[in-house]
Amino acid sequence: MKSNRFLKKGYTTGTCAAAAAKAAAAMLMMGETVKTVSVTLPSGEKLSLNTEDRQIGESKASCAVKKYSGDDPDITNGILVYAEVTKNDGGIRIDGGKGVGRVTRGGLDRPVGSAAINSVPRQMIRDAVNEVCSDFDGGFDVVISVPDGEEIAKKTFNPRLGIEGGISILGTSGIVEPMSEKALLDTIFLELKAYRKTGAKAVVFVPGNYGEKFAKTEYGITNAVQCSNYIGDSIDYASDLGFSEILIVSHMGKLVKLGSGIMNTHSKYADGRMETLALCAALAGMEDFEKILDCATTDEAYELIRDTKTIDILMNRIDTYLKRRTDLKIGAVMFSNKHGVIGETADAE
């Protein structure tokens, strides 16, 4: 809610790509245009989306789905995400075309040289096309393209991350949540308030879906509160509401920023990830610590520092800043998708 009205959700570029691919595959199989297509999200929810610019040839078909971001101020809102589908002898092969970036550096979701179509959207595309070709002996080549992608990418972090030539096809849930700051903060506060009324005295914060999944898988925690980028505000709310203990479970990409006292982890406010890691590496006596500054992601940087005392120093710094923020008992667990738990503060256990 914002100003007494509901904020509208949208859908991701990954959802657009999956829907366009399914519709194009159906058109190729039937020889008829498909104006509306249903696509299944990772949650199992279904969306019905309209297609545009539908084309059917003898050996291939293509169409587009327009990206809709709801009330989220997303730079990709309104773009057309295309899928071109061609029959092959077997299997579903997915690649990126015009306007979809290519990975040029390690440490990202996809290997170097691959199209920047992340793992979850790839699986959505594969599942969507399989719904169409379950009785087909052959397979499909699927090429995802975004005509405006190259220009849009210049306004994103992609060039800095090592993704060149276009945007990334993204999404972990398939849905774009409206990112009104006031609405998000109000939601966090109300969730905490309701949870506190149940008698709970300890709260687990996770920034998003990755943290929530990890907390559940690793520790069996099923009642974590998503705090998004607002770690500092969430700590303040928990203190005001009378909680006595706080645990933060977060991917390294978010939590490392706390090592420099950055309590709002959104990139538009501050980054400092590599600078923080480089400082900790230097304090740990790592001779070539400056190499960290050239890393695209914290996962890539971790491979340089994992055998040093850098993480211990980082976790001590995080612990210090957390305890400056609140008098409550507070701890943090840091993980990476590849290595699991890689760091804990003093009171995390």
User: How many helical stretches?
Assistant: 11
Series of H and E elements: EHEEEEEEEEHEHHEEEHEHEHEHHHHEE
Tertiary shape: globular
User: In this structure, how is the largest beta sheet organized?
Assistant: 5 strands, mixed
Strand content: 15-25%
| Helix content class | 25-40%
Model regions low in confidence, pLDDT < 50 over at least 5 residues: none
Q: Could you tell me the radius of gyration in angstroms?
A: 22 Å
Q: What is the topology, as strand order, of the major beta sheet?
A: 4-5-6-10-7
> What's the count of strands?
18
Overall pLDDT score: 92
Q: End-to-end span in angstroms?
A: 36 Å
Structural class: alpha/beta
How would you characterize this protein structure?
By secondary structure, the protein is α/β, with parallel strands linked by helices. The chain has 11 helices and 18 strands. The strands form 6 sheets. A 5-stranded mixed sheet has the order 4-5-6-10-7, covered by helices on one side. Strands 15-14-16-17-18 form a 5-stranded mixed sheet, sandwiched between helices. It has a two-stranded antiparallel sheet with strand order 1-13. Helix 1 runs parallel beside helix 2 and helix 9 packs across helix 11. The two termini are about 35 Å apart. About 40% of the residues are buried. The model has no long low-confidence stretch (mean pLDDT about 90).
Q: What's the short story on this structure?
A:
With 349 residues, the protein is an alpha/beta fold. The protein has helices spanning 13-30, 119-133, 149-153, 158-161, 181-197, 209-219, 231-240, 252-255, 273-283, 298-305, 310-325; strands at residues 10-11, 36-40, 46-50, 52-56, 60-66, 80-88, 92-96, 99-100, 102-103, 139-145, 163-164, 166-167, 175-176, 202-206, 225-226, 245-251, 329-336, 340-344.
